[in-house]
Design goal:
Elements lengths: L2 H16 L22 E11 L8 E14 L2 E14 L4 E17 L7 E10 L3 E14 L2 E14 L9 E17 L2 E14 L3 E16 L4 E10 L9 E10 L1
């Protein structure tokens, strides 16, 4: 086992056993339509590990996000991302880098617990050192007995060089689809699978490639204040510059 793999394993085990992190998330790459609830606060800690691309077999990236979410109304949540950062090991660079800060808002038009289907509208803005990113999602969810089904339609636009004077901005667009299915086993444990399909376009005009990921998901909620969800993702496509494997852990604590 390499040093990178040992660090990831240690982080996952320690987070699972020590975070007293209850609005549970059944998936990590697919958003659900459970609202936070008016007046409720929640902290979410994200950890995403990515490794090995066909272009760089030594590539490893450890990405951290710190998110505070607040329910302004029973059907409207906002969230703020503290500075996201990552530690990278590549052929060209090794070290820590600032990624971005951000803000998100989610409007829940329909509730999966009281309506035939859950429906949400998601908007996010991220600002990095020289990049602005806008992301919009249509969220759909269906709960049936112990089953949870979710789908996200994703539109993302990244503007690179936006904070550099005298440079022309580079625009990348992403059209994505994420799917998730989960089954509750009882005692706060649910298992399932999810997938992510993303197509990249230069200037929203020229198609570059489509990346496909899929993997299992497991979640646990204490039923009161904290929960955690874990997804290992494997690339099923053959995009050289994208990671062959990534794993995401999200743990949340509700105040």
């Amino acid at each position: 086992m390499t040093l990178s793999q040992r660090l990831v394993l240690a982080f996952v085990l320690s987070a699972s056993s020590t975070i007293a992190l209850a609005d549970p998330r059944p998936f990590t790459f697919t958003y659900d339509t459970y609202s936070e609830g008016k007046g409720n606060w929640e902290y979410e800690q994200w950890f995403t590990y990515q490794t090995r691309t066909d272009d760089d077999h030594s590539y490893s990236s450890y990405n951290l996000r710190h998110e505070f979410e607040f329910g302004l109304a029973d059907n409207f949540d906002i969230a703020v991302y503290l500075p996201n950062w990552r530690y990278e090991e590549t052929n060209d660079h090794t070290g820590t880098r600032f990624d971005s800060i951000g803000f998100e808002a989610i409007f829940y038009a329909l509730n999966p617990a009281t309506d035939p289907i859950g429906l949400g509208l998601y908007a996010e803005v991220l600002a990095g050192e020289d990049e602005l990113e806008f992301e919009y999602k249509l969220l759909l969810q269906k709960d049936w007995n112990n089953w949870t089904f979710a789908y996200n339609l994703i539109l993302e636009t990244a503007l690179e060089g936006v904070f550099r004077k005298g440079e022309r901005n580079q625009v990348e667009g992403v059209l994505g689809h994420s799917f998730g299915v989960s089954y509750g086993l009882g005692r706060g444990i649910a298992v399932g699978a999810e997938s992510l399909i993303e197509s990249l376009y230069e200037n929203w005009k020229h198609f570059e490639h489509t990346t496909v990921y899929a993997g299992p998901v497991i979640s646990y909620t204490s039923g009161r204040h904290w929960w955690a969800t874990l997804t290992p993702f494997f690339q099923l496509s053959s995009v050289d510059e994208e990671p062959d494997f990534q794993i995401r852990l999200i743990a949340g604590y509700e105040f």
